[in-house]
Amino acid sequence: MVHILLERSIKLGNQSRVTEFTLLAIGYVSHFKPLIFTIFLIVFLMTVIGNSLIILVVRLNFSLHTPMYFFLSNLSFVELCYTSTTIPNILYGIIKGSGAISFAGCFTQVYLITLCATAECSLLAAMACDRYVAICRPLRYTVIISRTVCAYFAIFAWLSGVINSTVNTLVYSKFDFCGSNSMNRFYCEGQPVLRLSCSDTYISDVLATLSAAVFGVSFLLLILTSYSFILRAILKMPSASSRHKTFSTCTSHITVVVLYFGALTFMYLLPSNSSSQWLDLAVSIIYSTMTPMLNPIIYSLRNHQSHERWRQDMEMTGWRLG
């Protein structure tokens, strides 16, 4: 499917005389090349190391083979894919001093970013459901959130990502690009690319709205509904210590949800105009590069169990944590 899409994109690019796009943000930082390159490199390394360690620790420790950590390891893998799709190309562009990216390369980024974004939204919703069952239905937790159910959740997350990204990218690739080929971004995203088209984008706008409703808003509503029941259950607990202990198991997930969905909502609900372009650029960097880097830190700092396992694993390899 991806191979067919790329061939279609290349043919369309030749017909419309647009064979590449220009990522203006990469050119804007040319005067600060060493600094910006170093920042993105550090973010990339921290993201890869942090998320890889989470996957490794969960994989190696049998006591962490629980639904919550199963979803967390899947989320970490999504973050690795997310970062690997964007930052290496940014680093390459900074080195060569040009934001040019091929037509096929741009649509490949659009495809992978949409896939990862959809999968992440789905996984965050699955984690909210897991917390709901653990807190509101504790006696039936092992029955409801079984290994089979966890596997179905994960399969659904990745399958929904593939479907959403394939449909949207195929539709985008059918449009003509005969005008400006420049966008104020560090990487290619669906909506900024679509704004460069000289075709009627009504169908794609409708599709984007439906995709946002099905794969974005619905997952967010599921998360909010889950936490409304969780909050009600916590408020019914007799002691303050039990309420605090129970709520603390959700703080990491809540932090990530607010950070990720907050950035997405702010970006896509903000009217598109020249005055908001730089704000759009900043927010896109937050949810595509900073969030994947911060997730391992948030979960490691907030979760005592994973921190203790992390400590034990590091000590086994000769490291000592303070």
Report on the structure:
Helix 3 packs parallel to helix 12. The chain has a three-stranded mixed β-sheet with strand order 2-1-3. The C terminus is likely disordered. It has one domain: Up-down Bundle (Rhopdopsin 7-helix transmembrane proteins). The chain has 322 residues and is an all-alpha fold. It contains 13 helices and three strands, in the order H-E-H-H-H-E-H-H-H-E-H-H-H-H-H-H. Pfam families: 7tm_4 (PF13853). One of its GO terms (molecular function) is G protein-coupled receptor activity. It is found in: Cell membrane. Belongs to the G-protein coupled receptor 1 family. This is Olfactory receptor.
Brief summary:
It is a multi-pass membrane protein. The protein is mainly alpha-helical and 322 residues long.
Key words describing this protein structure:
77% helix, three-stranded mixed β-sheet, 322 residues, 13 helices, Rhopdopsin 7-helix transmembrane proteins
In CATH terms, the superfamily is Rhodopsin 7-helix transmembrane proteins
Distance between the termini: 49 Å
- Based on the coordinates given, report the CATH architecture: Up-down Bundle
Order of helices and strands: HEHHHEHHHEHHHHHH
Range of strand content: under 5%
CATH topology: Rhopdopsin 7-helix transmembrane proteins
What does the largest sheet look like? 3 strands, mixed
Query: Could you give the order of strands across the largest sheet?
Result: 2-1-3
Proportion of helical residues = over 70%
Estimated radius of gyration: 21 Å
Structural class: mainly alpha
GO molecular function, one term: G protein-coupled receptor activity
Protein name: Olfactory receptor
GO cellular component, one term: plasma membrane
Main location: membrane
